[in-house]
């Protein structure tokens, strides 16, 4: 019979290494902010009557008065970045580019620097609010459980687990930004919030079973045994629930639009990491927070 706490050092050590690597990736590579967070214009076009070199695109825009940067992917989609522009300038630049060939405009978004800075602030505040809010709610929800772990410790452990689930996908985005030029935009913030919501659901399922078993035991069983029992009772449910989401996300990555690929990838990685942390991080941490109180294993 599987005894989770027997291997708690391995599970927690693996998570610590994973978080350290992710933080190092963010520090070394940094995050590449998208247009909506940084400000400026992101313009995606394609020439339908043949390929056009990015150098020609940059030169055409320069002749129209714009300092631009352009990249092209394997599908022939050219991504142009310039400063924030209004609609008259947009039309003028489009006319300049149309001289190079038949132009298909795929996407255009322009955000001023003030709006971009405001979105960055709101995105960070949203993540902090969710982290703290969920932790406080968990502490309140488990207020009737006082032994051997105080209710506020359930909230602290949940906060640590959620930080784990946020840091790892962020580290992945840092690596992808350095290798593939993937940007962090508001979609990434939404993906993180989705991950946190799914992860805390799994954590609550495990914690609630621990609470029920504690109430039934009435101090007659050791806390470690109760944690192990609770994990065994909820393991299949947690894994199966996550697996259904993973299958949907994999299918979406395989056949869905390319624009959603990295958004879906972040949710996929966060789902896997969140499921792991709910079982193999949160439960051992909760046990360690109550160790020394009441009976031990």
SSE diagram, text form:
Blueprint: H1 8-29, H2 35-38, E1 40-47, H3 54-63, E2 69-72, E3 78-82, H4 87-98, E4 103-111, H5 113-141, H6 151-180, H7 186-217, H8 223-255, H9 261-280, H10 282-290
Antiparallel strand pairs: 1-3, 1-4, 2-3
Helix pairs in contact: 1-6, 5-6, 5-7, 6-7, 6-9, 6-10, 7-8, 7-9, 8-9, 8-10
**If you average the pLDDT, what whole number results?**
84
Distance between the first and last residues' Cα: 16 Å
So what's the CATH class of the largest domain?
A: Mainly Alpha
Report low-confidence residues grouped into runs of 5 or more: none
In terms of structural class, how would the helical and strand content be classed? alpha+beta
Q: How many separate domains make up the residues?
A: 2
Per CATH, the architecture of the largest domain is: Up-down Bundle
Order of helices and strands: HHEHEEHEHHHHHH
User: How are the strands of the largest sheet arranged?
Assistant: 2-3-1-4
Q: How many runs of DSSP E, i.e. beta strands?
A: 4
The biggest beta sheet is recorded as:
4 strands, antiparallel
Percent of sequence in beta strands: 5-15%
Number of helices: 10
Q: Tell the overall outline.
A: elongated
**What is the CATH topology descriptor of the largest domain?**
Multidrug efflux transporter AcrB transmembrane fold
Share in helix: 55-70%
Kindly report the name of the CATH homologous superfamily of the largest domain: Multidrug efflux transporter AcrB transmembrane domain
Radius of gyration: 24 Å
